[in-house]
Structure formats: C-alpha cells, structure tokens
Amino acid sequence: MKKALITGITGMDGSHLADFLLEKGYKVYGIERRTSTKNRTNIKHLEGKVTFLMGDLSDQNSLLRCLKEADPDEVYNLAAQSFVGESWNTPEQSADITGAGALRMLEAIRVYEKKVKFYQASTSEMFGKMEHLANENTKFHPRSPYGVAKLYAHWITINYRESYDMFNVCGLLFNHEGERRGKEFVSRKITDGVARIHLGLSDSISLGNLDSKRDWGYAPDYVEAMWLMLQQDKPNDYVIATGKDHTIGEFLSSAFNVIGIDDWKKYVKQDSRFMRPAEVYYLRGDSTKAKKELGWTPTTTFDEMITKMVKNDIKLLSGS
C-alpha cells in the first residue's frame, strides 16, 4: 500500500486529492495546523479514513516529525495562504507560508534521507502579466505578493531537484473551482450569491473587476493531474489548464442561467474594495505537454462546473 502525505488537506484541492488517493488504495495522511477550532468543513467525510497529523509550514521540525510518522512515498504540498487578494494585506505571512513553507518541507524531506516524491502546487498567478497562451516555457511576471511567493516555491522546488537529485515536480495549475471552494474566492462568491438570490436571501452580489479573463477548470479533474505527475519515471513540470478563457461576466451569465435569469447585470454591484492594486487581466494555459506525456485532459466543461456549484450552494442554503 502506497502512503501519501498532504499539506493543505482541509482545502478544496487537498480534500479532493484525498478522495482520489483513497480510491487508488493509498494510506493517506493529512497535515492540519493546530487551532482552537478545527476547520473540517471540506474533510468531515474523511474522518476515520485519513490519519490527521499536527504540523505547520512555518515550523520545519513539525514537518520532519510528520514525515517520520507517515513515512510517505509521496508528499503533496498544497498548503498556502492562497487567497490572492489577502496577500496584499498580509504579504509577510504569504511569503513565509506560501514561499518559505515549501522550502521547509523540501529541507525536511532532504534531512529525512528517504526517497520521497514531492509535488509542489505552483500556480498560473506566477505568469501574471501575459497576453498569450502560457506553457512551461512562458516567462513569469507575477502581479501579487501571492504570485511572487509561489514563484519562489516553484524555483526552490526545481533547485532542490537539481541540487539533491530529488523527485520534485511542479504543477502549474490554472484556475480550478468546485463546490468546496472557499466563499472568499470570486467563483464561489458568485455561485453562493446566485443561490441566495434564488432563495430570496439576498438581492445582489458585490464584485470587483468583471472583465478579467481566466482559464477555469473543475478541481476534481485537476487533482488527477497532480497524481499523474508523480507516477512518471522522471520528474518534470506541467501546465494544467483547459486552454479556454472566460470573463467574470461570462461566469456570472452561466451561474444566473442555472436559476433562469438571463439579465444578471441588475443583480451585480461593482465595489472598489474588491479591486486589486495590480490586476491580472488574462490567464490562459496550454496543457499540450500534460496531454501528451501524462495522458491528461479535463472532462468537466465550464458550464457543467458552474451548474454543479450553484445547485450545491442552493442545497446547502436551503438545508435540503
């Protein structure tokens, strides 16, 4: 039985990855931070199936202890301060957890001195200022403290691979969403807001820039790509994306269509509080390499994903 250790298991990607690995027959360990109140909204169904360990990306000794307890074949580093907007408010914490946290895990694995395959969750936000399809060779230009921190984590993962002959890979995942996404993210903010309007609990949604374009995929599809990267004979880095872009306005249109509303503009208010100091206007990825070498392709369409999210939020809010 293979064993996997997941940081960030309480998040959207971490919980879906745990589901996927359990189906593959893995023994799964998940690292949680010690808090006064546990946040297990996304992983309540995993209790009794996953072994939870206390650790923190700000404390390398705790990571080494988790490695010794889990003795994993694979480590998936998904933990981060991952809300882009918040990274301007807490840039130092974002750098410490999102950036240096990856270094601490890599160093813990190096000190552990056992062959462990390592996955680093890189991000399309590292590309930042771009105008064309991005692949593995596209120049990086991050436009947020989050993107800069992720870029450090990305390059230190590659550096440790080259310096210590470690099996390290980076998944440059473009935007991916799902029912377990946090409500602070624009995708879930929209689907939750649409559900509230449908149920008469609200009459509007407040958002920032509506013209930004993103390459949106479905999170459960993307965690399969993470796993596939670690099953290869040699470590390599891959862009994971649908290759299609949609504006936030198009996301809104698709979400409101689920509840039978065609003209969404009267329900949406633009609020300057949600504008970013440096906006990323366009992100679209080219996953040709992943399709060719991993055999990976997304299976859930943009509209199918949004329909799932809106219906799930209606169900949650109505208590049905």
Structure description:
38% of the residues lie in helices and 15% in strands. The protein is built from 9 helices and 13 strands. Helix 2 (60-70) packs across helix 3 (91-112).
SSE diagram, text form:
Elements: E1 3-7, H1 12-23, E2 27-32, E3 51-54, H2 60-70, E4 74-77, H3 91-112, E5 117-123, H4 145-164, E6 168-173, E7 176-177, H5 186-198, E8 205-207, E9 213-214, E10 217-218, H6 219-229, E11 238-240, E12 246-247, H7 248-258, E13 268-270, H8 288-293, H9 302-318
Parallel strand pairs: 1-2, 1-4, 2-3, 4-5, 5-6, 6-11, 7-10, 8-13
Antiparallel strand pairs: 9-12
Helix pairs in contact: 1-6, 2-3, 3-4, 5-7, 5-9, 7-9
Strand order of the largest sheet: 3-2-1-4-5-6-11
- The average pLDDT value, as a whole number, equals 94
Largest sheet: 7 strands, parallel
Distance between the termini: 38 Å
- Rg, Cα atoms, Å: 19 Å
Number of helical stretches of at least 4 residues? 9
What is the chains' assembly state? single chain
* Number of E strands: 13
